[in-house]
Amino acid sequence: MTVKAKASNESITIIEIEQGVVDFFIVGTTPIILNSISAKSRHELLMPRGKKNAAEKAANLKHNPYEEFNDCVVRLEDGRETLLGFPSTAFKGGMRNAAVDLPGSSKAQIGRLTYVPGDYIEIYGRPQLFMSITRNADQNHTPDVRTRAIMKEWCCKVTVVYTMPLIKQQAVVNLMSAAGIMQGIGDWRPEKGKGDYGQYKLVGRADKDYKRISKLGREVQIQAMTDAEPYDNETEKLLRWFDTESKQRGFKVVA
Does residue 215 form part of some domain? Predict the structure, then answer.
């Protein structure tokens, strides 16, 4: 069966699509906890070794805070202004999630109309070693000790590309600002409902705090990751006990 199409005089209007770009200068208002999956964990996912017996557990350290501290961060290649990076998708994710609570846009729409170029954002600040007691995700919620890197003060520059005229620059600014308050980035962020870490505010390029913290770049971070400094009193006590106990048990740990 053949169907003939009827001619139509109706015109079709195509909206011209352009891309806008806005740079955000960000200063943390609460400390940020960095926690990338470690190389050891990635290897275990790729090729699990199975459960250790009692002899193997006694002969090996369950935790090495210094090693875990260095393994929990993303290291950027030479030539970048900082040693440490943070996934750029975290900032886009924050804007998408903020859209759920703000009128005028949807999470899916923001996901389609905005993106943050590059894989990692250069993040400035001095990292410190942070140890805390956590609960595992097993049935008994077994307590454990986790070691991560934390920055008490931090800042970064984030570039957002958005689609015009479907979204306006002011809407992007509003979403990024709201994400800094309601979502945050890193571990224990407000998005997860318990912590208030990783919150941030938008500032100008000439902001005094941004200018000061942005001086804590690659060289400072290399030194800080080499000479691990405890973040708080609890971490200092745990680390001091670990250093003493590991020596008494015959383990050679390089700080």
Answer: yes
Closest CA to 25 of 91, 94, 109: 91
- pLDDT per residue over 8-20, tens digit each? 667 788 888 899 9
Residue 211 lies in a domain: yes
Task: Tell me the per-residue pLDDT of 70-103, one tens digit each, with 9 for 90 and over.
Answer: 999 999 999 999 999 999 999 999 999 999 988 8
- Contact yes or no for 97/106 (Cβ under 8 A): no
State how many domains the chain has: 1
Total-model pTM = 0.85
Burial class (CB in 10 A: 0-12, 13-18, 19+), 86: buried
Task: Name the nearest CA neighbour of 186 among 137, 149, 131.
Answer: 149
Domain of residue 243, residue span: 18-45+61-248
Sequence-distant (≥ 6) Cβ neighbours of residue 92 within 8 angstroms:
111, 114, 115, 116, 160
